[in-house]
């Protein structure tokens, strides 16, 4: 896979997880445990992205 495409996918996924958590929290449709899991996935994607530099 193209390295730039992989970096873009990880960044987009991290952003999507953050936005999803924010919106679902505002709507009171997510439990705290699920929100932490979503944010952890996003943070992991950003960490993988940084480690590959």
Keywords:
mainly alpha, 53 residues
Structure description:
It is a single chain. With 53 residues, this protein is mainly α. It has one domain. It is 83% helix and 0% strand. Helix 1 runs antiparallel to helix 2. The longest helix is centred in the first third of the chain and has 24 residues. The protein is elongated, with a radius of gyration of 12 Å. The two termini are 15 Å apart. The mean pLDDT is 95.
Return the structural class. Answer: mainly alpha
* Net shape: elongated
**Assembly category:** single chain
Give the uncertain stretches in residue-range form. none
Summed up, the helix count is: 2
Strand percentage = under 5%
Average pLDDT taken over every residue: 95
Helix content: over 70%
Element-level helix/strand string: HH
How many whole angstroms does the radius of gyration measure? 12 Å
Q: N-to-C terminal Cα separation, in Å? A: 15 Å
Structural domains: how many: 1
Query: How many strands?
Result: 0
- Largest sheet, described in full? none
Overview in brief:
The protein is mostly helical and 53 residues long.
Summarize the helices and strands and which ones pair or pack.
Elements: H1 3-26, H2 32-51
Helix pairs in contact: 1-2
């Amino acid at each position: 896979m193209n390295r730039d495409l992989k970096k873009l996918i990880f960044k987009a996924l991290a952003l999507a997880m953050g936005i999803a958590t924010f919106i679902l929290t505002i709507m009171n449709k997510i439990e705290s445990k699920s929100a932490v899991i979503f944010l952890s996935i996003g943070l992991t994607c950003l960490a993988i992205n940084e480690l590959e530099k």
